[in-house]
Write a structure and sequence with these properties.
Layout lengths: L1 E4 L4 H15 L3 H11 L6 E7 L2 E15 L2 E13 L8 H15 L4 E4 L4 H5 L4 E2 L2 E8 L12 E4 L5 H12 L10 H13 L3 E6 L5 E10 L2 E9 L2 H12 L7 E6 L15 E6 L2 E4 L2 H7 L7 E9 L9 E7 L2 E6 L7 E4 H8 L5 H6 L4 E2 L2 H10 L12
Parallel strand pairs: 4-5, 11-12, 15-18
Antiparallel strand pairs: 1-2, 2-3, 3-4, 5-14, 6-14, 7-12, 7-13, 8-9, 9-10, 10-11, 15-16, 16-17, 18-19
GO molecular function, one term: aminoglycoside N-acetyltransferase activity
Pfam family, one: Acetyltransf_9
Organism: Vallitalea longa
Length: 393
């Protein structure tokens, strides 16, 4: 099996489109839209697995920057993982995933995220359950107590990209995982909304400044919120009132939101459907770089070693010495040192991404450590943080 990037061979690209349509039951124009709008416009790439120069399977490494502990870091978003049915016993996906790790490491993409068809399958290659989202469904009458806050609501589009970016970044930069959307991705988002009959409305104040926005669909007697962003509670209430004015068109409202969102606290009737749903898996691509970038704030002195087990990324499969002195961080590899802490790349990814605390991992026997004091110290330094992913891939 030969693994290589799919560049500009039109015949192979058409086979890639065929493959995506077959495996994901997509209309051809949807796949070609994404291919035309994104491929070659940033550092996203398509990997193909070939046998006798015939495409057997593929995956996409989407080029993203994401927010992580207040930083802006590179992330490879794995999507479009597909194989033709006749090639599914040839371990094409396994080879594609292993090669993707090398490529992402070369591209300094220190994290990778993916939406799994099977958690157990991708766990074998180092990805782990690392994000959730809260799904909420209620009767639209449950929003009847929200009143207009005096703002103007009107459609928004590509001409509002810079204003939307400001509101978006203020709202999402406090989470781990949301993408820092480029102008290109904003442009594609608005165009994709138009093509998929997703409405885009903004909240404007008296100075005609965008203060929030909502992307939504009206389908099957439901108001389905795709994304809702606001800069204050007052603006959020305006958006909830905006949803309520659709009561003649729909009976139900569906939201997706971060797990720590407290919308239910400002409703008058909490009889609703609310579910925490597992979402994407996370993987650290380069442990050393992640440790060097981690904001060990207000740490005057810290010295520990951590051993990582990583079967498919040899550069991670070692012991790392971490020394922090007045916020200055030094990380070195030392495979001869006995680690103070040991864990798999999967657990390390969960902890450093803020999905679980190191104390929780220790109590679940996912981390090995003989020094409970070190666990308690690191627990204060590496806090849990709500993860939330805004862009699918």
């Amino acid at each position: 099996m030969e693994i290589r990037k799919i560049i500009d061979d039109k015949q192979i690209l058409q086979k890639f489109v065929d493959l995506q349509c077959y495996c994901f039951n997509l209309d051809r124009d949807i796949v070609e839209f994404e291919l035309d709008k994104m491929f070659g416009k940033d550092e996203s790439i398509i990997l193909g697995g070939f046998l006798d120069n015939q495409l057997q399977g593929s995956l996409i490494i989407n080029d993203f920057n994401i927010y992580w502990n207040g930083l802006n870091v590179k992330m490879g978003g794995i999507g479009g993982v597909t194989t033709f049915p006749e090639a599914r016993q040839n371990h094409v996906v396994s080879q594609l995933l292993i090669e993707s790790l090398e490529i992402m490491n070369e591209n300094n993409q220190i994290f990778s995220l993916l939406a799994p068809f099977s958690f157990s399958f991708y766990r074998k290659y180092g990805w782990e359950y690392g994000t959730t989202m809260k799904a909420m469904e209620l009767d639209i009458d449950g929003l009847s107590h929200f009143k207009s806050q005096g703002y103007a609501l009107k459609p928004i589009g590509k001409e509002h990209i810079q204003a939307a970016k400001q509101v978006y970044e203020k709202y999402y930069s406090s989470f781990n995982g949301p993408s820092k959307r480029t102008d290109l991705r904003w442009d594609v988002t608005f165009e994709r909304n138009l093509g998929n009959k997703v409405f885009s409305y903004g909240v404007f104040d008296d100075d005609d400044t965008l203060r929030g926005y909502i992307f939504y669909k009206l389908i099957d007697n439901q108001f389905v919120v795709r994304e809702m962003v606001y800069d204050s509670l007052e603006v959020r209430k305006q958006l909830l009132y905006f949803i309520y004015v659709h009561r003649a068109q729909v009976e139900k409202v569906k939201f997706v939101m971060p797990e720590n969102d407290k919308l239910d606290m400002i409703l008058t009737n909490q009889k609703l459907k609310m579910v925490i749903e597992p979402y994407m898996m996370v993987r650290v691509i380069n442990v050393k770089k992640v440790l060097e970038m981690f904001p060990f704030r207000n740490v005057h002195s810290l010295d520990f070693s951590i051993g990582i087990e990583d079967k498919y990324a040899s550069w991670n499969n070692t012991v790392f010495e971490v020394k922090v002195d007045d916020d200055k961080i030094q990380v070195a590899e030392n495979e001869n040192r006995k680690p103070d802490i040991s864990c798999s790349i999967q657990v390390f990814s969960q902890v450093i991404f803020g999905f679980i605390s190191i104390e929780e991992a220790f109590n679940l026997e996912l981390v090995s450590c003989d020094d409970i004091n070190l666990i308690e110290k690191l627990n204060k330094i590496i806090p849990k943080k709500c993860s939330y992913i805004t862009d699918g891939f």
